[in-house]
């Protein structure tokens, strides 16, 4: 049986993941005209995977970085972190 702290920690991580998926959606909406359709679709695909899994994997991060860059991803993670609390 998991202790309460472990359950709470997983819930907080999950909330952060969903907040990051939300920030990715905001990024897509704000930049839709500048993104080529394949890039838009690929980012949205990885965002959907994050939502369906309720977690983010190294593969997810690598793919997203490929499309938006590490600095932009870090910015979105910081926004998500600030907004999920």
Low-confidence stretches: 1-7
Strand count: 0
Rounded to an integer in angstroms, the radius of gyration calculated over CA atoms is 14 Å
- What sort of overall outline do the alpha carbons produce when their principal axes are compared? globular
- Individual helix count: 4
Q: Give the overall pLDDT as a whole number.
A: 85
Residue share in helix: over 70%
* SSE topology string: HHHH
Largest sheet: none
General description of the model:
The protein is mainly α. 84% of the residues lie in helices and 0% in strands. The protein has four helices and no strands. The longest helix has 28 residues, at 4-31. The chain is globular, with a radius of gyration of 14 Å.
Summarize the structure.
By secondary structure, this protein is an all-alpha fold.
């Amino acid at each position: 049986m998991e202790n309460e702290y472990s359950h709470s920690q997983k819930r907080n991580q999950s909330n952060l993941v969903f907040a990051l998926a939300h920030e990715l959606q905001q990024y897509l909406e704000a930049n839709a005209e500048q993104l080529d359709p394949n890039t838009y679709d690929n980012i949205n695909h990885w965002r959907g995977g994050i939502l369906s899994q309720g977690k983010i994997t190294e593969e997810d991060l690598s793919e997203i970085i490929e499309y938006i860059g590490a600095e932009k991803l870090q910015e979105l993670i910081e926004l998500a972190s600030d907004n999920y609390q």
